[in-house]
Amino acid sequence: MGLGKVMDALYQFCVWLMRLAYLNILWLAFSLLGLLIVGFAPATLAMFSVIRKWMMGEKEVAIFPLFWKSYREEFFRANIIFLILAAIGWIFYIDFQIFKQAQGTIFSILKVVAASFALVYALVTLTIFPVLAHYQFKTLEYFKYTFLIVLSSPLRMLLMILSLVLVALVFLTMPGLIVFFSGSLFGLMIMFVTSKIFNKIDETDIHPSVGL
User: pLDDT per residue over 171-206, tens digit each?
Assistant: First the structure.
């Protein structure tokens, strides 16, 4: 490989680092703009909307206009979905607190069942915002379709978990990167995996509609 190609590859790498850092700063800023409580969900959706465009090959997309458009237009829908997810998560938390104090075979079985459902819930939570960024459904339908995607793609879900663990290990090794890449890098890994699933679904044309 010639020196010119090496320099070009290094330049492109730096450009992508800057894009990810900029996107992460937007994600943090707009999450804080809503005091996290109502800002986190729409900021996360807006982040995935930008990453989705990158995955579709639109590498020169204007980041801030797309981020702001998604944040503004999907503010309420994103928060409704996040509120439902939080309520389900709270139910799981209460269940595990009860099971932790209980003894007996039946409760041991219930712990395993609850842990299995909790795993599916965690995967749905990780996947639903990419689904929200990619498809146009009615609000509650996002849960159904995300649930089906998670159950029908176990290997890709495993790949997503492994990639997120790898990113987490990087942050543990170099915590200074968290400010610049904590959301965008995790989002990139999640969207990379889910976009492969979406492409396969889009080829079959079995979904109601795809976002623009």
Answer: 999 999 999 999 999 999 999 999 999 998 888 765
Partners of 135 in the beta sheet?
Answer: 210
Instruction: Look up residue 34 and give its DSSP letter.
Output: T
CA–CA gap between residue 19 and residue 51 (Å, rounded): 10
Residue 176: HSE in the Cβ half-sphere, 13 Å Cα cutoff: 1
Structure pTM? 0.91
Residues 88-107 as b/e (b if ≥16 CB within 10 A, e otherwise) read: beeeeeebeeebeeeeeeee
Q: 28, 33, 44, 22: which is closest to 132 by C-alpha?
A: 44
DSSP3 helix / strand / coil % (the chain, rounded to 5): 85, 0, 15
81, 140 in Cβ contact below 8 A?
Answer: no
- Classify residue 156 as exposed, middle or buried by CB count within 10 Å of its CB (0-12, 13-18, 19+): middle
Give the model confidence (pLDDT) of 131-180 as tens digits. 999 999 999 999 999 999 999 999 999 999 999 999 999 999 999 999 99
Q: Are 113 and 98 in contact (CB under 8 A)?
A: no
- The kind and range of the H/E element at 37 are none
